[in-house]
């Protein structure tokens, strides 16, 4: 059985890979800053619509007050002139209808009858116009509510069109803080595009693939002591394979593959420390003397029972798989210690 060999100390420099956690933080910050400005624009746009409607309503209210006063004046004049005509010629006034005086009546009154009739008729028309003006203003008031509602319904669409325009985006990025963060985001995107192009051209080494994958998935080097750890899966990069382990906090760790550890894939383990020495043992359930199973581990790390059962089923298939990976040398002393403790535990288990 092959034992892991430590890699030579004089290794070539590892490929430079992004700090994905920091990049995510920068991108999240930029997204948050942009969303705040978009939200601010939308709120200001909606407030502007309401302010304009309110200002227009105030103008209409003033106009309505003036129209009401004019209507009252016209009606008073119409009532006065109608009453004057009615007193002189009662048979020509029937409720709101005014009949024109005859020629004889006008001649006898030396034209006074005609003047009284025309004054009453003119006052009636003025009162009718004042009434129509009030109805127009009432209609406009109702129409203003309709237009306000339509404008508010269109506000999100208008805001989206504006905030997606190159002009608006260029304006807000004049802000020094936002512009600085945007420049960093552009650098991140440019790096990703460059990497994608190198990957498509076959110019990415297996080592860089591994480092980037570990960085993106936040897979750390295994550090001891550690508790509640299980073998979740195996990832392969070129000829090198790595165990991916997970603890009950869902943190992932990488350990170079060693075929001697295959018998342990179906368990959950604790690394403890006594002085300078480490020991490996089966993990226990919280507040219980019973051993923690892989299913217990999935239940603790899954959102619900169904998800835990499905993850456990897939893991069982992973355990039963036949693998032909070669043992990978460890990178550091801690990994070597963990591997040897695992191997010793596996050997004792198979005896």
Structure description:
Helix content is 60%, strand content 13%. A six-stranded mixed sheet has the order 3-6-5-4-7-8, covered by helices on one side. The chain is rod-shaped. With 351 residues, the protein is of the alpha+beta class. The chain has two domains: 153 residues; 142 residues, no CATH class. The protein contains nine helices and eight strands. The longest helix is centred in the N-terminal third of the chain and has 69 residues. A hairpin with a 5-residue loop joins strand 5 and strand 6.
Largest sheet: 6 strands, mixed
Distance between the termini: 15 Å
Residue fraction in strands: 5-15%
Helix content: 55-70%
Please provide the ordered H/E string of secondary-structure elements.
HEEHHHHHEEEEEEHHH
Order of strands side by side in the largest beta sheet?
Answer: 3-6-5-4-7-8
**How many domains, as an integer?**
2
How many strand units? 8
- Average of the residue pLDDT scores: 89
Low-confidence stretches: 1-8
Structural class comes to: alpha+beta
Over all CA atoms, what is the radius of gyration? 44 Å
Number of helices: 9
Which key terms come to mind for this protein?
60% helix, alpha+beta, six-stranded mixed beta sheet, 8 strands, 351 residues, two-stranded antiparallel ribbon, single chain, 9 helices, disordered N terminus
List the helices and strands and how they pair.
Layout: H1 20-88, E1 93-94, E2 97-98, H2 103-108, H3 112-163, H4 166-172, H5 176-200, H6 206-216, E3 219-221, E4 226-237, E5 240-246, E6 252-256, E7 268-274, E8 277-282, H7 294-301, H8 305-320, H9 333-350
Parallel strand pairs: 3-6
Antiparallel strand pairs: 1-2, 4-5, 4-7, 5-6, 7-8
Helix pairs in contact: 1-3, 1-5, 7-8
């Amino acid at each position: 059985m092959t034992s892991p060999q430590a890699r030579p100390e004089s290794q070539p420099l590892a490929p430079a890979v992004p700090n994905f956690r920091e990049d995510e933080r920068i991108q999240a910050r930029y997204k948050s800053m942009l969303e705040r400005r978009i939200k601010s624009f939308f709120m200001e746009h909606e407030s502007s619509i309401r302010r304009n409607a309110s200002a227009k309503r105030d103008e209409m209210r003033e106009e309505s007050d003036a129209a009401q006063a004019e209507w009252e004046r016209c009606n008073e004049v119409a009532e006065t002139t109608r009453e004057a005509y009615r007193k002189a010629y009662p048979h020509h006034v029937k409720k709101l209808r005014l009949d024109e005086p005859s020629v004889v009546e006008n001649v006898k009154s030396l034209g006074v009858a005609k003047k009284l009739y025309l004054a009453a008729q003119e006052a009636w028309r003025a009162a009718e116009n004042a009434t129509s003006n009030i109805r127009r203003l009432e209609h406009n008031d109702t129409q203003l509510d309709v237009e306000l509602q339509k404008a508010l319904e269109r506000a999100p669409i208008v805001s989206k069109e504006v905030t997606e325009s190159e002009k608006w985006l260029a304006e807000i990025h004049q802000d020094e803080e936002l512009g600085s963060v945007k420049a960093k985001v552009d650098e991140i995107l440019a790096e990703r595009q460059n990497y994608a192009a190198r990957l498509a051209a076959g110019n990415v080494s297996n080592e860089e693939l591994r480092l980037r994958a570990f960085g993106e998935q936040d897979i750390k080097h295994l550090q001891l002591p550690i508790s509640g750890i299980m073998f979740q899966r195996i990832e392969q990069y070129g000829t090198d394979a790595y165990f991916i382990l997970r603890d009950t906090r869902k943190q992932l760790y990488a350990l170079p593959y060693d075929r001697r550890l295959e018998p342990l894939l179906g368990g959950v383990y604790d690394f403890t420390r006594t002085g300078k020495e480490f020991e490996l043992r089966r993990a226990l359930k919280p507040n219980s003397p019973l051993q923690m199973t892989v299913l217990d581990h999935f239940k603790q790390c899954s959102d619900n029972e169904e998800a835990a059962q499905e993850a456990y089923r897939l893991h069982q298939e992973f355990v039963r798989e036949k693998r032909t990976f070669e043992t990978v040398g460890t990178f550091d002393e801690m990994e070597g210690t963990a591997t040897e403790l695992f191997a010793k535990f596996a050997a004792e288990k198979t005896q």
